[in-house]
């Protein structure tokens, strides 16, 4: 584990850059530049500090944002989500999403909607109990 505070701050700056620019095409050179390290030194340090490569971190951010959009925005298509979160190919987005989440994006959206609908429903036993008490 890294203990050098300056190094950790520089790596955190690069991670914040990924968090804010996940929807743009990002190269290792661009990200490592934010931390003021050479690309290979940065890659080694980032993995050592966060137990993940910068590319894997970027993919995770994109998938998390895609999940959020699929859950909340009913009007956006899966294709729109794909490009909005920074993927360049619908096929690679769908396969990575399935690999990371366990479902295709459209299936994830359907399951998320079902879950939301179930949360809004009042359980039948509560209705029965309430009617019996009010009689």
State the order of secondary-structure elements, H for helix, E for strand. Answer: HHHHHHHH
Query: What is the CATH homologous superfamily assignment of the largest domain?
Result: Homeodomain-like
Structural class estimated from helices and strands: mainly alpha
Uncertain runs: none
CA gyration radius, whole angstroms? 21 Å
Tell me the total number of β-strands. 0
Count of helical stretches: 8
Named at the architecture level, the CATH assignment of the largest domain is Orthogonal Bundle
Structural write-up:
Helix content is 76%, strand content 0%. By secondary structure, the chain is mainly alpha-helical. It has two domains: 1-51; 59-135, Arc Repressor Mutant, subunit A.
Short description:
By secondary structure, the protein is mainly alpha-helical. It has 8 helices and no strands. It folds into 2 domains: 1-51; 59-135, Homeodomain-like (Arc Repressor Mutant, subunit A).
Question: Could you give the topology of this structure?
Answer:
Elements: H1 5-21, H2 28-35, H3 39-50, H4 54-72, H5 78-84, H6 90-101, H7 105-120, H8 124-134
Helix pairs in contact: 1-2, 4-7
């Amino acid at each position: 584990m890294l203990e050098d505070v300056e190094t950790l701050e520089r790596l955190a700056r690069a991670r914040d850059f990924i968090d804010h620019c996940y929807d743009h095409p990002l190269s290792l050179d661009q990200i490592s530049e934010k931390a003021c390290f050479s690309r290979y030194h940065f890659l080694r340090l980032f993995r050592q500090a966060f137990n993940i490569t910068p590319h894997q971190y970027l993919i995770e951010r994109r998938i998390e944002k895609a999940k959020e959009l699929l859950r909340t925005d009913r009007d956006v298509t899966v294709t729109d989500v794909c490009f909005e979160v920074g993927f360049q190919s619908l096929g690679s987005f769908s396969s990575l999403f399935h690999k990371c989440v366990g479902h295709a994006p459209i299936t994830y959206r359907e399951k998320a909607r079902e879950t939301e609908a179930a949360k809004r429903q009042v359980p039948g036993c509560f209705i029965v109990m309430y009617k019996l008490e009010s009689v």
